[in-house]
Amino acid sequence: MATIIQTQTIGSTAVECAQPIIRVEDVHKYYELGETRVHALRGVTVDIAAGEFVAIMGASGSGKSTFMNLLGCLDKPSSGRYVLEGTDVSKLDKKQLAAIRNRKLGFVFQGFNLLARTTSLENVELPALYARLDKEERVKRATRALEMVGLGDRMEHFPSQLSGGQQQRVAIARALVNQPAILLADEPTGNLDSRTSVEIMEIFQKLNDAGLTVILVTHEPDIARFAKRSIVFRDGKIRRDELVNDRPDAAKVLESMPRVEEED
Fold it and tell me: Could you tell me the fold of the domain covering 51-76+91-259?
């Protein structure tokens, strides 16, 4: 894991590192909508070190989702460079980008995206299947991932038998099964109640404490505060990039929160 040198200087990066896991250099992204050109990203430059927990924030249309799509190799910049673990992915073709996504990135989405007629274990196995791992290794990894998110006793349950929070845990386990370098989470608490949202943040904090780089897109300041660093987009540019002060420990926050069934 790269050494993180913290600094309070606010600028293009809030954390300096010798070899960032992500380096974005003067990235622009345009979309052509008929005769209209939309300039979604306007010269974005930022480094993210291995082992960081970064929250990406901004209003609708700010560029945060476009930025997340680029980081996830779901799209390519119109100009500029995106270097992921030393590889300039902005120059890769679709097949190469798909390989990068499968090997290096884990995705968690707001909508869970679980297969309804497939058990938790089978859902988590899927990325390992695409990675062409043998059955024994797939089951081993999927079992371990589900245990990591506290669902060791729900492996044979179908999504309809799980709560929303449990379904999101399955989705997180699925994102971890290929042992990615980076976990990308796009509004992962958007469909969850307050307590369950903090429970998901507890999982992310534990994964980050174990060395996993976590990048979270959220519009909720209460969720962003669980990260170590906050990057705020507006009008396609980074307007604020700073370390999170007085970052709460999600596990301790949960101790003071009533369980859902205890609420009025």
Answer: Rossmann fold (3.40.50)
In the chain, which residue ranges form alpha helices assigned H by DSSP? 64-71, 94-104, 120-130, 135-148, 164-176, 194-209, 221-224, 250-255
Predicted pLDDT of residue 261: 57
Q: What pLDDT, on a 0 to 100 scale, did the predictor assign at position 170?
A: 96
Contact 203, 149 (CB under 8 A): yes
pTM as predicted: 0.87
Report the 10 Å Cβ neighbour count for 202: 18
pLDDT of residue 1: 34
Read off the DSSP letter of residue 248: -
112 half-sphere exposure, CB direction, 13 A CA radius: 20
Domain ranges of the chain: 51-76+91-259
- How does 159-185 read in b/e, with b if 16+ C-beta sit within 10 Å? beebeebbbbbbbbbbbbbbebbbbbb
Neighbouring C-alpha atoms within 13 Å toward the C-beta of 24: 25
Chain center to CA of 80? 22
Q: List beta partners, residue 73.
A: none
Residues of the chain falling short of pLDDT 70 = 1-18, 260-264
Could you give the 3-state DSSP secondary structure of residue 183? Answer: strand
